[in-house]
Amino acid sequence: MQFNEAQIQAIQHNTGPCMVIAGPGSGKTTVLTHRVRYLIERYGVNPSDILVITFTKAAAEQMKLKFKGLSEGRNSAVTFGTFHAVFFTILKAAYNYSAHCIIKPQIQHEFVKDQMCRLELEYDDENEAVAGVLSEISCVKGEDVNIDEYESRCIPPQSFRIMYRAYDDMLVRKHLIDFDDMIVQCRELLMQREDYRRAWQNKYKYILIDEFQDILNVEIHNNGENISGGQRVRLELARFLLREKDILLADEVTSALDEKNSRLVRDLIFSLPITVLEIAHHIDEEERYDQILELRKG
Fold first, then answer.
1. What is the DSSP string of 259-274?
2. What is the pTM of this model?
């Protein structure tokens, strides 16, 4: 495959912060997969030392297939996964979870429906009502909201608090977790257990994160201490894993943020003692970067 000069520089970049300005169709995923191969073949990185994370399962599978074709089946030890898949892998090692411990959507639906019946709540559409409650349960967990202060928008607040606690108790009693628990429990584990944190930091020498901006869409202040919700804990998890690593690839890391919070996020990232390779559609604060490369289609 032919690359232009900027793409080659992005693939081969080694030390020092670098921002890659890349619009849609400019080959970001291709650059990422070729960079993984370059780390292995030119820098001698062990494939098992590389972790590539993206936001969706489809994107992770696409990158894995592209890399498999690129390497002709070799270097299969490179790990590709979503944020949730990586977090669940960490939890499995710590708590002996299995895939059977992930609560199924139909069980969630039936539980909420039964609770609404028990609380004698009225609704026009069952599926819509249940989906609304489950969405708010996810919001409370992911946003780290005090349940006693949360005001439900779809059912009476006190009924929602009763249902939320019943749902949480059911998960604990049956040794089940949902997708929000994967994030929250993984964060707690890595914060409280230095041995696990060190073990996972040492497992991967290179962590490349694609679609990083999807985890950062809330206001960030006080150096990230008050970031709320799933975005906060995902960012903290990423930082736990990235400490003492060599390279971070961040794709459109601040695209969902305003100017103020964009600067704060970059301050957080550039405070890490690693090389940062940032991909974005536009550039701010040129003085931050050792190199600025522009990718063009063709």
1. HHHHHHHHHHHHTSSS
2. 0.65
